[in-house]
# Entry
Amino acid sequence: MKNIIIIAFAVVLDLIFGDPHWLPHPICLIGNMISFLEKKIRGVLKKEFLGGMLLALIVGVLSFSIPFILLYIAYRLNFYIGLLIETYFCYQILAIKSLKTESMKVYHPLMSGNLTEARKYLSYIVGRDTQSLDEKAIMKGAVETVAENTTDGVVAPLFFMAIGGAPLAFLYKAINTMDSMIGYKNDKYFYFGKFAARLDDVANFIPARIAAIAMIIATFVLRLDTKNAIKIYVRDRKKHKSPNSAQTESICAGAFDIQLAGDAYYFGKLTKKPTIGDDIRDIKPGDIIWANRLMYVTAIFVALVAIIIRGVLWI
# Structure
């Protein structure tokens, strides 16, 4: 019963408040810890792969054990204090509204024709170079980010908090944050970030496929092109170096009848990537809005399923 209440209230709080900038965020603390440990470990351990593995293990253990200990103490003091703190933790792990907020910061400059501003805000939410992107590439980047992060920022956190509450969800977010910070295939992180990147692939494997199923259902609810979404998903879901990223991107591309992915520049170097979806129509700024609607319906559906599963287990 406790987990049902926590998940329900965490989702509602995130839908209402998102991530206010004035509120200290635990993921920022995890990011600071990763940066600090990277400098220390690189200074004493010359074997990069082992260094990256050590960093991942330390960050993972601390990210799980600290909230676990805090919640253990809180619940021992008073059940309702523990419930309140764990609900707050789970709320901060979710990123439903913040995904919409950040992607809409790209949408509004696009609508006013300010590509410089749109590129700037897109650079905050993607890993690729954005300085010279044209309007179409900016729109694709925003849609892809919402689609991919439906797994990372919504479905996977819900999945792990349903299984193991806030501590397990924090462990997942630590893994995901490490991947976003050091999981690059460039000279600096190719070996150092390899373990974190593989760990992220494993952690997201099941949630990404849950997200895909939920998103297909969401296309039907929103009366999008569900038939094409299924077609593109079956055909293109493996067209990504990550085994998970194209799961939701392919559905989004199919549902909107657009083409996503393709070649992109990272740190000034061109990376050849296959396209996802068919270029049936040109992408439009409004597709960013529809990507958010698709993400919202997917999130609500997965949250309801998580609550039902916890309810059944409780009974």
Summary: The longest helix spans residues 135-182.
